[in-house]
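PROTOCOL LOG
Step 1. Enter all chains and additional molecules of the complex.
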Amino acid sequence: MDGFLRRLFALLVLRPVALLMLGITLRGREYLPKSGPAIVAANHNSHLDTLVLLSLMPLRLIDKVRPVAAADYFLKNRLLAWFSLTLLNILPLERGNAARGEDPLAESSAALARGEILIVFPEGSRGSAEVMGKFKGGIARLKERFPDVPVIPVFLHGAGKALPRGEIVLVPVVVDAVVGEPVAWPGNRAQFTADLEAAVRGLGADLPNSFDDGD
Amino acid sequence: MSFLEITPNAAMAVAAVLGLLVIATAIAWPQRKRKQELWLRTRTWWVIVLLIALSVALPSWVPVALFGLISFLAFKEFVTLIPTRRADHRVLLWAYLAIPIQYYWVSVGWYGVFIIFIPVYMFLALPLRMVIAGETQGFIKAAGTLHWGLMVTVFSLSHAAYLLALPHEVNPLAGGDGLLLYLLLLTEINDVGQYCSGKLLGRRKVVPKVSPNKTVEGLLGGVVITTLVAVLAAPYLTPLLWWQALIVGCVLALAGFAGDVTVSAVKRDLKLKDSGSLLPGHGGVLDRVDSLTFTAPLFFHMIYYLHY
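Step 2. Run joint prediction.
Step 3. Record the structure below.
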């Protein structure tokens, strides 16, 4: 039943919105994961980012794609929790549980072991519109535990203009999504986080906004 | 009343354009590996021509809605490209709402409101909403760019759709469909004609700072070809007399050039090559309709003045 609702939501809401209201320009489609397990790491400006990434995934993988999202925010009331868990299929992340001595990555690790595809925003929050914050180290820890799981960098641009933080009305804007090749493990966590951040930034720099003379 | 609403003359025009496209495809197909851009462009032309042909064959609200969609896509590209202020989020929403409203005036043929809604009422409404938002930093620039975008992508383009709302008696031969097809045919022939004659003969640059590939020879070639087609096609699609068609062809060729380089200037200001990537081989929607934003209102008013 949930799987059916999720597909219905993807076909009737996600994809039409992505097509008409946003019109996503996707570069690097060949790097999108074709099967799990995998980690998709993107910069974060807007709630739309999750919807954009979900709409880019093939429908057959929809039950495997898990946006990792803060439990205190996305489960704060029953309606939002139903929406987040059933339609978006989020993997709730308890913030601050490491302080209580629990493994903060237990849920994510279990999901990867099940062959799922995690969508992670390593900045940790949306921050100010279209400004990239510093990446956190969670993905590096996961990569250390699962060296064979590819970590795929994605740069997103435009969603912060379409639906900025604190707004509930979506304004149509073209969203750019650039997918890059998986980031290799350099041997230690700090370097991996730095490499991942550099990879996402690099994809942003590749967006064609430089003028070469056509007509 | 039949399901397909198209006059024989308009159908003939569509058939002629499809014929041209078959020839273009026959030229582009063998060299599709070497000249990929040309091939992509031709393929996208098929989609555009088939969409327009299908829509004009259906009841007139269909092509009106199609033009509404084109305005929406072009305006969305514009909003994406220009710098906007965070405070103007709801102002942008108001601007977007102007699109269905403007095309509603077109669909009911309410000329008096159609012609002033965006130039007057949106001109007043956008700054009003901006004042409510309360951010004064960058106010003039934001009000100016946003209204300019609505004028170009919505107000101007809606004139093409309004041709369909003109009474059939204006053009008993081919109706509004005929006028719309005539406008689109001349505008696109001019684009292609300028491009080809520029490639073949182009030497002296017209506006080197704005668009270095535009030449005097290309511009004049476009004028000659467009005027020729205008005079030849006029008796089938329009009520224009031969000398009127001559003037219309000349004016549209020059206006198409002006629209083209105006959008080029905007892109150059924003340091972009294309306005988007929705139309493979062409760029964005704004790249395709650039000349139409200038030819549509001019053609509409010439018809309106001469034959209405």
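Step 4. Note key features.
Residues 2-22 of chain A form the longest helix (21 residues).
Confidence is low (pLDDT under 50) at residues 210-215 of chain A.
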